[in-house]
């Protein structure tokens, strides 16, 4: 039997994927080095820690980042033999104002060397990379000020965001819309977000 939590200790903002018979989780360490931890399991019960994808300062310079700032919500994904992680580096957070920047790193092997970061945008935190069935890729993230969920295409060859930025969801009356993840299942697209803040009003 699998019992929660499947990872014990300091493992905030987990992102999980399955590749073949293997499960992988990425978690944040906020402003503490290395910023991102990776874990591997075959059965969701027994986990081993893998080398961090962040191994050098050029990938995540967190000097001067505030307490509970640094790297937020690393989103791990896999497509066509490549592992991707998109993450936010939070430099300032005062009230509803955040100075944050979103980046992408990638690797051909989960435990191999990861690329230098590719700058994506600074429009909001909690980025997620969506791989559509037609091969196109899209970045979704919350809009600064909790003003909705933004979507923009990512060109993996040019390694940059391209095309129009669209606000695809403005949220509900609960507010604080964040943490978007987009899925294409059958004929439908599904957007899952968090709302209500991170306290007792938290909801999905």
From TrEMBL:
UniProt site positions, description: Important for catalytic activity, responsible for pKa modulation of the active site Glu and correct orientation of both the proton donor and substrate: 126
Listed GO biological process terms: carbohydrate metabolic process
Q: What is the name of this protein?
A: Glycoside hydrolase family 43 protein
Which family is this sequence assigned to? Belongs to the glycosyl hydrolase 43 family.
Alphabetized SUPFAM superfamilies for the sequence = Arabinanase/levansucrase/invertase (SSF75005)
Keyword Lipid metabolism set for record: no
**Per the UniProt entry, what species is this protein from, by scientific name?**
Lachnoclostridium phytofermentans
Which key words tag this protein in UniProt?
Glycosidase, Hydrolase
């Amino acid at each position: 039997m699998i019992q929660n939590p499947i990872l014990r200790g300091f493992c905030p903002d987990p992102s999980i994927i399955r590749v073949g018979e293997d499960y992988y989780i990425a978690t944040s360490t906020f402003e503490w080095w290395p910023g991102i931890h990776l874990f591997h399991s075959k059965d969701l019960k027994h986990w081993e820690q893998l080398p961090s994808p962040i191994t050098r300062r050029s990938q995540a310079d967190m000097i001067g980042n505030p307490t509970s700032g640094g790297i937020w919500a690393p989103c791990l994904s896999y497509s066509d033999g490549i592992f991707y992680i998109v993450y936010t580096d939070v430099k300032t957070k005062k009230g509803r104002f955040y100075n944050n920047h979103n980046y992408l790193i990638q690797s051909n092997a989960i435990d191999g060397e990861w690329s230098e970061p590719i700058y994506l945008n600074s429009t909001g935190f909690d980025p997620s990379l969506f791989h559509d069935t037609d091969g196109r890729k899209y970045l979704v993230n919350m809009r600064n000020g909790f003003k909705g969920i933004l979507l923009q295409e990512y060109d993996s060859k040019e390694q940059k965001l391209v095309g129009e930025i669209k606000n695809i969801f403005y949220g509900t009356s609960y507010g604080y819309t964040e943490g978007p993840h987009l899925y294409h299942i059958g004929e439908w697209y599904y957007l899952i977000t968090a709302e209500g803040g991170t306290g007792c009003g938290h909801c999905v």
